[in-house]
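Case study B.
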Amino acid sequence: MQEITTYLAPRSLNEAAQAMAAGDVTVFCGGTDLAPQTESGARQHSACLMNIRRIEGLGGIEEKDGDIRIGALTTVSEIRRHPLIARVAPILAEAAEHFASDQIRNVASIGGNICNASPAGDMINPLLVLDAAVELASWADGAVQKRSVPLENFFTSPRRTVKRAEELLTTVVFRKPAADFVGRFRKSGPRPALEISTVSVGVGGNFSAGVLRNARVAFGSVAPTPLRARHVEVVLEGRRLDADVIGAALVAARDDARPIDDVRASAWYRSHLVEVFLEEALHHVRGN
Amino acid sequence: MSVEIEIRFTLNGRPVSARIGPTMKTLTLLREQFGLSGTKYACGEGECGACTIRVDGKTQNSCLMFAADCDGREIVTIEGLKTPAGMNPVQKAFVEHGAVQCGFCMPGMIMQADYLLGNNPQLTRQEAQRGLEGNLCRCTGYTKVLDAVESVARQKCCGQC
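Model:
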């Protein structure tokens, strides 16, 4: 086991960013992913272990200049119960509602769920539907530098992202959806709680007079990364959401979902679930 | 040798301190350094809830919690639920309803039930069921657990029924 020579629990982003610039750091907040991964040997700690949970100003949810900004340390429980999220982005609360268990929701952070970069990460799917971006901070030229990356471009392969080792995810941002935005998230697993999604499907867009605009569809657990279902979106965009269009969307989903057989489900079953959930979600949107 | 960390926190109402390794989990700290063996090790990966404790008023799985993160916090274990008058109402209800079979999941079950009732004294059976989803009973004795939780909620509701 890797020897840990330094443990840090910084209070400020400056301290954290400087530590990450100085060398390889293993970062955690709630530890709900890091603890089992390191205990099982699937992942090793770096020589420096850093607890970012106490960094000030990195939590909380706010509306600013038409954006919804969620700090990386915000827990899944906070998202589940937050009045602003319930009002403007209930799809995110819906995903939080079906996330793990109370005990894990109370400590698991949104930033951690994204950086863990699992194809099954449940908070990622609705954030793709909301067209979110993530802000990454690093230390350079004597100050914290930030860059923003669309969440869709963040993931490269299972457990891998474009985030550089010295960068810390600080904020998740999305435009506040308009009043006619409708979203729906569905996930599947053999039991209701503590389930790693066999498949997740998120659908959203501006829906009025029977037509879906700015259609955004996301799939989880059907490819090496969570993804936007671009073929489905093209079929749906600007069209009247009738049975023919829904049927065409289900066919297009076969071009977006590239599932594999693994311990949780076969590729065939996953493809089937994608179609079932997509159909259900689209009917839900139409029913609104 | 990995670095040693000194932590100070409140454990069941008393200020305590400890020296720990950086990867130690809170469950190990509680059981092995403080001898509080009421909090149970079962799955060790956050799936079963047997190790549930309350940290700053919120429940979490102590098997997943880095012990270093206890520093400065207020931690309550099953041993800390007892009142000067004896068992707390949730503990009593579990006994009265025979909610215990082998008993191994009980400390976690009771910690989580106590947390749920603290947040929502008039918890419904459905809400209790959802709130206890992170607590597994391998004897599958859920019905009496829910009976017990529901009985506490009813007492808090009107005291009559």
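The mean pLDDT of chain B is 95. The remaining cases will be described in the next quarterly update.
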